[in-house]
Amino acid sequence: MLIFALLWFFFRNVTLVFSPLIVAMLSVMITMGLMIITGNPVHVLTSMVPIFIMPIAVLDGIHILSEFYDRYPQYGDRKKAIRFVMAELAKPMLLTTITTAIGFAALNLIPLPPLQVLGTFVCIGVIIAWLLTMTLIPAYIILMPEHKFANFGKQHSRHQGGSTLLGRLLPKVGQASTRLATPIILLMLVVGAVSVWFKTYS
Fold first, then answer.
1. CATH topology of domain 2-158
2. What pTM value is reported for the model?
3. Which of 21, 81, 83, 186 could make an SS bond with 75 (beta carbons 3.0 to 4.6 A apart)?
């Protein structure tokens, strides 16, 4: 419900924001079903599989909706807009999915069977979520009636981006980060060195 509320707040289109939630629910059900079918019991650790999969499964969907939200006013056609969005985001989403899946799969290196099961099935769930995101969400958007996109994204056009506090603040933060790149890196190195020193001698 929290994820749904946040998505509705950002995109203001109830029908559209259901798509990443559907992906998340299907990913959890398929993954947990596979886990049970393969004879793995549900215990304290494996019961956390849905907790990991649910937010991860929503992430790629949010990327798609966010980019679609920006691009739809430019194209005025959902098919053209979603084709552009998917071409733009396909590679980054694939790479982030691979790295996340490998990270959880690495839990198999720990000689604890419950953790190995957790890592294996979260890895599988992440891959399932990516497959569903890449297929279900574009199809969902294409099948939505055109009138559902009336005024969609127009209040967040490029020309109005600086009218909000966040829209004014983020460019300044980006410029400051670029201008002060060297001092920021040096500060982080000092903080890291101090942390290591305290950890070693405390």
1. Multidrug efflux transporter AcrB transmembrane fold (1.20.1640)
2. 0.74
3. 81
